[in-house]
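Our collaborator T.R. sent over the components below with a one-line note: 'Predict the complex.' Nothing else. No constraints on interfaces, no templates requested, no preferences about which chain binds where. So this is a plain run: every listed entity goes in together, and whatever single assembly comes back becomes the starting point for the next discussion.
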Amino acid sequence: MKSFLKMALLSTALLLPGLAQAQEVVTWWDFLGGGDGVRMKALIEKFNAENAGKIEIQATTLEWGTPFYTKVQTSAAIGEGPDVMTYHLSRLPLGVSSGALSEITPDEIAAAGLSSADYADSNWKAAQVDGKQYAIPFDIHSIVLYYNKDMLKAAGLLGDNGLPIGLDGVDNFKAALQKLKDGGAEYGVSIHSAAGDSQWRIFYSLLGQQDGKFLDENGKFLDGDNLDKAVKAVNVVADWVKDGLAPASTEYPASIALFTGGKAAMHINGVWEIPTMTDLAAKGELFDWGAIALPTFFDHPATWADSHAFAIPNRVGKEVSPEKRAAVMQVIAWMNKNSLAWADAGHIPAYAPVRNSEEFKTKQPNATYSVLADTAVFDPSSVLAGVASPVYDAAGNYLMPAVNGEIDAQSAMEQMRDDLQAQVE
Amino acid sequence: MSAADTATDVPAPARKKRFNRTEVLAALIFVLPFVVVYAVMFIYPTLQMIWLSFQKAPLIGAGTFIGFDNYEKLFKDRLFGVAFWNTVYFVVLTVVPSTMLALAIAVGINRLKGWTQSVILACFFIPYILPVSVVFRVWGWMFDSQFGILQPLIALFVGENVPVFRTLPLFMPAVAFITIWWTIGFNILLFIAGLRNISPEIYEAAALDGTSRWRQFTRITWPLIWPVTVLVLTIQLIAQFKIFDQIYLFGNGGRSDATMGLVQLIYRSAFQKNNGGYGATVAVVLFAVIVIFSVLQFQMLRARGEK
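Returned assembly:
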């Protein structure tokens, strides 16, 4: 017993010099549970290996959406949050207004070797509220059209360059879906139609292609002819579902499985599922596939987009040391500078030196669809908008049932407008 | 009342001895830990919650007193009405059916002997051990509108696959069914304990008189098991009024306004919208509803049982 005690004391003593130059442990939360989560884990491991003895990231992945943001908000209020977390820029106004986010000062940004010049202006400013920086952008992500080359070829919808043809325009696209179905596909296109979030991304793209404004400068939702444009946008998808060209009320994993299992010829989903396809193809379990920017259904190309960013939560009552903040900034800077690996997860890096690099420009399929960044439409900047916001709730309550034919598009959009307008206080 | 009566009958010195100071002290010491924990963990937060319902306050932090404004807003809130009726509907769908079913299963299991009894009882009890997230995944996959294992069966009757959790009229019944499947094991256990308390001699006497099985059940088992039934009904009522997890998980991303229960309204107001005052108001109303319903039910059922 005595010798055991001695040993315990000795081991503690041995640890002491180690403590003097202790490594900073950075607690990290993210919501990356899709195909991209695997890529992020690899990035974190690489960081930990390179910075062994100095900084260690301890990462936890939480459930995407409302569960993540509710937890962040609650933990920020009592100082029990992480040191750094991923955050959607669409939600930044809401996050700042509820006091969940800590300002990142210009000195901190400069000290980490980052600069606003390294980011697209609109992207950088989307991380600000009232001129103060609350996040550092990491990527731009969007939805794309995944397609099965064999099925498109059989239906005469594949050009010689391996890219789909004849998909632009509402009627053309629907005709193409019918052709694919006639050719033996169970569905022309599979969509995640059982939830508001995925439908919101398609809807917002279609609204953007008509220059429709979901929320205008006067704080009005779907005002004037914007309502008609919204109804048109809803009806595009509702028509596919009604005619059995797209599956009704289908859950997220099932919508992917319909495509990867060869039952649907095309699939509309986020770029974050690129790794899912890449990995399946690498294992030889997937057909010849491709991904392109969403076709132009209306006047001009436009695609919904959002941006993953890094933010530091408020730690009310438990402020962190300057050393820890510096370590967090090191993590953020490193991730941005190494974001070429993040492009493997389908995303478009926000950090311009990476985005403009030759490696990224030749990376497939990113290079095919990265044009969408030029015509991207971002969620309205409002405390009511963004991931897990009242707008997303409303998408579940009105948009999703309208797509599935439970409510007609006109009354769904009117109810959505009235519900959100009533929440503007 | 009766304690006071006996106290006056006892001679003075004896009474004095009865309330011996050291005994009182000992009693206090034994009771104190519970009283302290109860006061700190229940009474104090409850009073704080009621106080919070009169304030405009964020989830955490100070608020301003606004009188009955939250209550006024509550009774004008369309969502509160929806949430209230959804909760009542869910209670109706689960409480009595799950109690009756549990009794029937318990009577059946009680007939079995030896290891078959243990195995069958374990089969019914196993779902109760599962966490709600597992229950959600299991049934979510079984009912999945594209690949669910139950869909061929549904298609046989309806003619096509049915997205059960995205079809509004089916949502609550489906969640109620799953909840009964999940939690019935505990009720069965309570009933079996009750059934084993009934002396076999009563049944032997009834058998000697040539009483039919059904008469044995209605005249012996049912009256003697009644106190347990009241207990199960009351526990069920309180538990189902607090329905949250299942609705939240199965309804996430869908028409959450139409499928919302009262606890979900609390969650959304306080945690999602950072409106602690309003969330507390809904909680106070739910608290009152549960107290009223359970006291009423318990009294009513007990009175009937004593007849």
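Summary for T.R.: Chain B touches chain A at residues 58-61, 140, 144-147, 163, 165-168, 252-258, 271-272, 274 (CB under 8 Å).
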